[in-house]
Amino acid sequence: MLLDVVVRILKRANFHVLSAVGGSDAIRVAKESSRTIDLLLSDIEMPGMCGPELGEVLKKERPGLHVMLMSCGAGGNLLVLNYGWAYIQKPFVSVKLVQMVNDVLHSQDRSQFGGQEFDSRRDK
Fold this sequence. Notes:
The chain has a single domain (2-32, 48-118), classed as Rossmann fold (3-Layer(aba) Sandwich), CATH 3.40.50.
């Protein structure tokens, strides 16, 4: 259900969205797509493969990929920030999601330490 909501929010904001259910489906969708994929937006916790693992797999094939992960679990941001990736805490409002996606897409690659500037708990 959350997947459908996030896809609708991003499409309304004029993003082209490829969606997948779980890590293995996301890998398949990425392999089958000839388009540039600018951003992976994934939940941290998924069956079979966690979001950070998915990010690592997809970045090997697409090094320019930005990664943004989300979670409702306490401490999820610490895991993500160790990767240097953007993080948004659930629940979130659509305006904040779109703002963060735009910020991440227009930032330098966050696949290193230093991603904490996109911590969703900080006010700008």
